[in-house]
Design a protein that fits this description.
The chain is an alpha+beta fold. It is 40% helix and 15% strand. It has a five-stranded antiparallel sheet with strand order 1-2-3-5-4, covered by helices on one side. Strand 2 and strand 3 form a beta hairpin. Helix 8 packs antiparallel against helix 12. The longest helix has 39 residues. The relative contact order is 0.15. Belongs to the inositol phosphokinase (IPK) family. It holds the Pfam family IPK.
Length: 392
């Protein structure tokens, strides 16, 4: 047993040694803590403006926001996830030479490959452009397009389930999955879930869709007009292609909700450059075993909204319902206004940046050798209703 003096001396030496070493350890721990804090600050967070699909906190994971401004969509289980990833990689492949697929890029969110959390390298996310990211007060709506919300390979039970959810899908051709509308009078948002869209009938569809373009004070006819123009561009793409069929895919609508936002061109270009630099990081090369998408280069045949309206009236029988004017069809004045909406692009110069319409959700895209009549039908039907809202 040590003498008290010797014991104290030993304790002092050990304590001094511990403190001396501890200083280094303490500094190292602080640095690690700062690193972890910075990593947490850079960690993806739930996307605040998601309006449809699996949402964070309700399901295991929803759409996430990456710190560089892109969004992260977790890869779904096979075959849906690999199918969607394969679609994006084919369309945005650097070696892609197909003019038709290249033309499709402008209608999709930009694709930056895949991303995985550092601590979960096998957990894959699609890294995509945040279409609403450049808007100050974005109004957002997700609309499923097509006469069928299930693909040809769906089981009989799955088909019945989807039909039961919205029996009017085949007749109407689209379904509102959710919306988020900025109200200028209160400075807040009104949100609607998928149940809202499923509650709409042929009689209430026009009013229900118009709600997305009403800011609490007025109907945003400028946003409707520009949306029509962009949908027409997508319709023209579909009318010229016979290589792909899209099922359970959606259009994402975004427009600037604030009436007092100045020209955002510089800000938009800045964010685009930032995303282009940040986007490709952490690309993961994943080999998906599936047949390559067919490619064909056909001449795009354009149709006017009037042709779309007449088509919907003829095929869908909407003429006997409230989806068309209760008067004796469109007057020459209405026809003139419709053509002006589609053809007078000069009037939209400087304004198009305040509206976006992009195609999203590609877990059920299949090669084909015929036109996608179901999707085309849905686009024409949607154009018809939007035109009714604009004219009324």
């Amino acid at each position: 047993m040590l003498e008290p003096e010797l014991r104290m001396s030993t304790v002092d030496r050990v304590l001094k040694s511990y403190l001396a070493g501890g200083d280094g350890e303490q500094n190292e721990t602080a640095a690690e803590w700062k690193s972890r804090k910075a990593e947490r600050a850079r960690a993806p967070v739930p996307l605040s403006h998601q309006v449809a699909g699996h949402k964070y906190g309700i399901h295991k994971v929803g759409i996430l926001q990456h710190f560089d401004g892109t969004v992260l969509k977790q890869l779904q289980p096979p075959p849906r996830g690999p199918c969607e990833m394969h679609f994006y990689t084919q369309v945005f492949a650097q070696e892609c030479k197909d003019p038709h697929l290249l033309a499709l890029q402008q209608h999709l969110p930009k694709y930056y490959g895949t991303w995985s959390p550092p601590n979960k390298p096998k957990e894959l996310y699609l890294k995509l452009e945040d279409v609403a990211g450049r808007f100050a007060c974005p109004c957002i709506m997700d609309v499923k397009i097509g006469r069928k919300s299930y693909d040809p390979f769906a089981s009989h039970e799955k088909q019945e389930e989807q039909i039961r959810k919205y029996p009017l899908m085949e007749e109407i051709g689209f379904l509102i999955l959710g919306m988020r509308v900025y109200q200028v009078d209160s400075g807040s948002y009104i949100s609607q879930e998928q149940s809202y869209g499923r509650s709409l009938t042929k009689k209430t569809l026009k009013t229900g869709l118009a709600r997305f373009f009403h800011n609490g004070e007025e109907l945003r006819k400028d946003a409707i007009s520009l949306s029509i123009h962009k949908i027409c561009d997508i319709l023209h793409w579909f009318e010229g292609q016979k290589q792909l069929h899209f099922y359970a895919s959606s259009l994402l609508f975004v427009y600037e909700g604030s009436l007092h936002i100045a020209n955002t061109k510089n800000r938009t270009e800045g964010l685009t450059r930032q995303n282009d630099k940040a986007g490709p990081e952490n690309k993961t090369n994943v080999h998906v075993t599936s047949s390559k998408l067919k490619s064909s280069c056909g001449q795009v045949n354009c149709s006017s909204i009037l042709e779309a309206i007449h088509y919907v009236r003829k095929v869908n029988g909407f003429g006997s319902h409230s989806l068309h004017h209760q008067a004796n069809g469109m007057t020459a004045d209405m026809d003139s206004k419709t053509n002006n909406v589609v053809e007078d692009k000069s009037s939209n110069e400087g304004k198009e940046e305040n509206v976006e319409v992009r195609m999203i959700d590609f877990a059920h895209v299949f090669p084909s050798d015929s036109s996608d009549d179901g999707y085309i039908y849905g686009l024409r039907s949607l154009l018809f209703v939007l035109e009714q809202i604009l004219q009324d």
